[in-house]
Specification:
By secondary structure, this protein is α+β, with helices and mostly antiparallel strands. It is 37% helix and 27% strand. It is globular.
């Protein structure tokens, strides 16, 4: 149940936000979009403020990509074609394959916002992805080295 998932996730997201100082989020998949369900603010001066209820194309955010990790290449290609062109830069397919192997998504968002995030799927007892969590911040707060440091916290 969605309410139970939010209640279960809240303490973990509060811990993540406290530990990292960054905003922490949880979202679920609804068709070809992610829906943010919970946001816990961090301490950064320039904060990511995506509110619960916000819907985004799956291929455009770290949270969305974490929801896709089990889908495979055919689904990834279809969903990335739906994404805004700014989110299809570089070798997104290789990045998705690396994320699937790692079990965690390292997302560097495009201009003008340059929102970076580290995201991971949340699985039920059967191993099915039922939601995803992430921490997100503006690039100056979350560079590549810091993203790597956070991987164990989200795995």
């Amino acid at each position: 149940d969605q309410t139970d998932l939010v209640a279960l996730a809240r303490p973990q997201l509060e811990w993540l936000a406290q530990e990292t100082g960054m905003s922490a989020f949880m979202g679920r998949r609804e068709g070809d979009v992610s829906v943010h369900m919970l946001r816990v603010p961090g301490r950064e001066r320039v904060a990511v403020t995506t509110q619960p209820g916000t819907r985004r194309r799956l291929g455009e955010t770290g949270l969305g990509k974490a929801l896709l990790l089990d889908d495979g290449e055919t689904s990834w290609r279809r969903l990335f074609e739906q994404a805004d062109a700014a989110h299809r830069r570089g070798d997104w397919l290789a990045e998705m394959k690396a994320s699937a192997t790692r079990g965690v998504v390292l997302q560097c968002g495009p201009a003008p916002d340059h929102i970076h995030s580290v995201a991971a799927p949340v699985r039920d007892a059967a191993g099915t992805i039922v939601a995803a969590i992430n921490v997100a911040a503006a690039a100056p707060y979350l560079d590549a080295a810091k993203m790597q440091e956070l991987v164990p916290l989200l795995r």
